[in-house]
Amino acid sequence: MRLRNRDSLFSKFFNILLLVSLTILVLESCVFTSEKQVYGKGIIMDYPSYEKCTDSPDFPEENFGINVCFEGGKRHITFDMKTPWLLFGAYRVDGDMVSEFGSDLDANLLIVVTHKESRGIYYGRTVKDDPPVIETEDEEEDNDPGGRIKSIGSYFNIDLRQQCSIEPLPGKYWVVILLGPLSSPVLEFEVK
Q1: Would you list the domain boundaries of the chain?
Q2: Which of 38, 61, 104, 110 makes the best surface tag, with the fewest CB within 10 Å?
Q3: What are phi and psi of 45, to 5 degrees?
Q4: What residues have CB less than 8 Å from 165, skipping those under 6 apart?
């Protein structure tokens, strides 16, 4: 009789442990999925993301520099403390900048976020697995068999809170993206 109670008790303990483990697994996968998705205008993507999307700022080919915006092309936005703080950007640099930094420019993109009231400064870098889009000039035109790099450009879509490890505080913030001597326009956002 005592052996049956022990087996029954073990079986109940095992079932409870299994149920708790499965519950934790499901909750972790839900939290992980919600943290890794960008929800905007019906688009779902992992972030950081380095592809053009509907919220990416346009960057004319002849214009070099960094351009950034929030969802819908906004220059000012209000975020909730619990939702992602999404920033969309594009950059294009000329051959001289490529000569200075090499073709791995994404590792040199610096994100700087400042909390206006506390003056707390947060920063992060964009890191990308594949190189940016490379455009070359016509080989015959330059009489250069390898071609000369005309420009390099890429897009980036990031969650500022995640990318810069920001502990959210209510208030107003400034954000700017830097790449060597280039800087994006300074944008302002508010967190409530």
Answers
A1: 1-35, 45-191
A2: 61
A3: -150, 155
A4: 122, 124
